[in-house]
Amino acid sequence: MNMKAILAIAAIGISAGAAQADESALVLGRSAYGALCTVCHGDDAKGTGSVAELFAVKPPDLTTLTKRAGGEFPFSDVYQVIMLGMDAPGHGTSEMPIWGDYFMTDALEDRGVNKTDAMYIAAGRALSVTYYLESLQQ
User: Fold this and answer.
1) Signal sequence: where (predicted)?
2) What secondary structure letter does DSSP report for 1?
């Protein structure tokens, strides 16, 4: 998968924030978060998922990303972590899955689309989760 292409595709959406994200993007993000992220980060996104206690490094509270970033939601960083996992440069290692690969594989196998369309689908799903997380900030 060409992650540079996917990240470039997302650059268009990164300039907008959750305030500009339409309701359908937030609904899709909430759905993907519920299906993929709650087991570790919890329904409340505070790092209290059902398996959180099993990790040496606990999943972070995702509702305080803006606060921890000095008052501005780190949209690009969050998107990159979703797409590339925590092994992205500057993030160290983690047990977090690389959701970009999952989204791409899901689109290719389950939806039967071509690789280019699968890249757009993967980028869109990651963007929707990022918008959803931005909407949860305290």
Assistant:
1) 1-21
2) -
Q: Which residue has the tokens 């650059």?
A: 11
SS3 label, residue 91: coil
Q: Render 26-70 in DSSP notation, one character per residue.
A: HHHHHHHHHHHTHHHH-TTSSS--TTGGGSSSPPP-GGGHHHHTT
From 3.10.310, 1.10.760, 1.20.1250, 1.10.10, which CATH number describes the 3-9+22-135 domain? 1.10.760
Query: What is each CA distance from 136 to 44, 84, 115, in whole angstroms?
Result: 9, 22, 32
Domain ranges, ordered by start, for the chain: 3-9+22-135
CA distances from 62 to 3, 104, 105 (A): 23, 24, 25
Q: How do the pLDDT tens digits run along the chain, 138 residues long? A: 455 555 555 554 444 455 556 888 899 999 999 999 999 999 999 999 999 888 888 899 999 999 999 999 999 999 999 998 875 444 445 667 788 888 888 888 866 788 888 889 999 999 999 999 999 999
pTM here?
0.81
